[in-house]
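Researcher: Re-running this chain for the archive, since the previous output was lost when a drive failed. Same request as before.
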Amino acid sequence: MTLKPLGDSAWLVEFPNDTPLEQVLGLVAALNKHYPNGVKDVVSSFASVAVHFDSVKGLKIHDWIEAVMADAPLFEMPAAKSVEIPVCYNGPDLQEVAMLLDLSIEELIELHSAAVYTVAAVGFSPGFPYLSGLPERLNLPRRKTPRLAVPAGSVAIAGGQAGIYPFTSPGGWHVLGRTAKTLFDPDDVQPAVLQPGDQVRFTAVQELDFPELGVIEPVAPTGRWIEVIQPGAMTTVQDLGRPGYEASGVSPGGAADRQALRTANLLVGNAENAAALEICLSGPLLKFHADATVAWVDGIGKSQRVASGGVLDFLKLTSGVRAYLAVAGGLRVPEVLGSAATDLSAGFGGFYGRKLQAGDHLQIGEAGRLPGGTNWHVGRTNRAARIELRFLPGVQEGWFSDEARQRFRSELYQLSPKSDRMGARLCGDKLDLETPREMISQPVACGSVQVPPDGQPIVLLAGRQTIGGYPQIGHVISVDLPKLARAWPGTWLNFREVTWNEAQQLKQHEKRDYAWLRAGLELLK
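Model: Regenerated structure tokens:
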């Protein structure tokens, strides 16, 4: 086992690729028995375990992991369960897969359903199980062209594994059939039905009995509320995210620009984690049905009072591609897994799991003590044509050619319009591996710089997946991620390497700056 940094906010334990799954899961069980303050998640994937933390005590957490690893002979495999999955084998790829493997459809179904599978990892999307145990005869590479939407419940195979899509999502696996079994329940304490180590059997059925899904009607507003007249391009309810559920495949999510959301909330007397609006590209047109105080953070953050019946127009952003609107008292939406953040890919959290639409009504909580006066603001530099991102070497940096590593540190990259909350896609010189090789999926972190086969890097942002299968050449440090989250498409950027200790010092400085901001705003109350 080796222990190395996964950026500046996680540690990664790597096992040899041929390590039995029982040993990996045994370490997870040992780590989960009792972990120190600051640890947010313990996530496993095949032959690796990540420990995510949110503090400036990374070295103490490192020492704790080493102490647990020293008791490796004492690792005990956690209790596993057996789960039967009924499958209707009528998938769109069934016939093609049978032809490619020179099997009849009956033989294909028999091979797939006779095997006993083990959940090796949960990731990609909430509750998605990576299943080992696929018969060698059914080994196929992924589809050349991924589908934009694979239906929820699809049972699929690819790359020597089987899997089940809990939600409708993009995917490049071969779909053999579909199940009606629910694999993820965000209202459950343990939301993912399948956990690493569980045993799975597929049973062929002729038809499926899908549960009826009731239509959720928005609750009529009461008390203090805001009416959405126009929603803007992409306006969602966000807070600082939902840590603690990455082992179930749930992205921590939350605001892409955590600095801006924290600042907006502080300007109106809210807790830093209060639910607010994240606005992308163009903002909303809002009518207030109560007196309120709001703070808009877009380059410069400033609060203002709005009278009942007033309309605020945020249709044009002036600085960053994202801005944040906090309302004194916070937005009142049901919390899911301990957070109000919207998870768009899974469709839960925030305002009914989706972006805002015209006609939506947002409840406002009761405001606390507000900073007084209006002749003040907080701010940062305006829109930049070029930004610098400081980074730590990636877990797989050694896989890349010398030329690629040098290029990553010296060349300019441009932010692609295809970027989203999951990741910032960059355009520039191709980054090649020294030797082509397959990678076993492992945990990723916000800031991980993945390089897919086309050689164009992707920096993972707040809506990232929990595990990934592309090599990581670097990790953008935490304090620089907001710069990337607010950058417009077309922005040029360069990478500059720093040390892990420097990254920790910068986190300390950020912590100090927010302490000063809180103290100053308290004096204005």
